[in-house]
Amino acid sequence: MAQQDERGGAGGAVRLDLATVSRRPTLYGSRHAISSGHYLASAAGHAILEAGGNAVDAGCAAGIALAVLHSNEVNFAGVAPIMIRTANGRTVTIAGLGHWPRGFPADLFLREHAGEVVHGVLCTVVPAAPDAWITALRDHGTMTFGDVAGEAIRFAREGFAMYDYFHEEVTAFRDRFGRWPANAEVYLPGGEPPQLGDRFVQEDLADTIQHMVDEERSALRRGRRAGL
After folding, report:
1. Virtual torsion, Cα 100, 105, 111, 113, nearest 10 deg
2. Which residue of 49, 52, 84, 142 shows the fewest CB atoms closer than 10 Å?
3. Are 64 and 145 in contact (CB under 8 A)?
């Protein structure tokens, strides 16, 4: 939307196009487009599209990248609900929400914790997000997990600039981030949240994703599906 504002001055009226001033111009894509919650995740997905991947490949690349770039609220081992509109017009959903183990007593929290979900391993589900991404790639994608996870590994290992939203979240919930020593080491180095512009590195996360890529690579001789 464009608007104009006239302001008097020594040189007369000044006409402002707010669409230009806001730095949000109208964009057109003739081949493909992608949008996400962080520009680096969008860049990761766009690179996959430019390399010949389909929308599912790109969406998985962006989603995995967001688990690094937005790890304050989108955990790599957390959830990843996915909706796919196929070329023939069919809508496919992948829950990506995870489950408690089958042997987990359904009434445990009622019996032993007054109905409250306690912190720690008891409230941890089987990691669903990696399974959701791999399922989407297997059934609807064209690339390997290693193909689409490369940028996420790079963002985790080399780091990215701490930005305002991430900084605000860690600052506001520093007690939660500091509850576990391994979390505090990453999110509260030296006991304080990283400052705006600091390079934020997640080495252990990079190693975890790289391990998955290495395991896939070792099985690829039996085909892409076996690798996934």
Report:
1. -20
2. 52
3. no
Coil, strand, or helix at residue 161?
A: strand
51 is a domain residue: yes
Residue 184 is assigned to a structural domain of this protein: no
Angstrom distance (rounded) from CA 82 to CA 16: 41
- Beta-carbon contacts of residue 36 (< 8 Å; ≥ 6 apart): 42, 45, 62, 65, 66
User: Are the beta carbons of 25 and 42 closer than 8 angstroms?
Assistant: no
What's the CA gap between 183 and 196, in Å, rounded? 19
Question: Into how many domains does the chain fold?
Answer: 1
Whole-number Å distance between alpha carbons of 144 and 60: 11
pTM of the model: 0.84
Question: Using one digit for the tens of pLDDT, what is the confidence trace for 145-185?
Answer: 999 999 999 999 999 999 999 999 999 999 999 999 999 99
Range of the domain at 46: 4-81+134-159+201-227
Whether 178 is in a domain gets the answer no
pLDDT band at 20 (very low <50, low <70, confident <90, very high): low
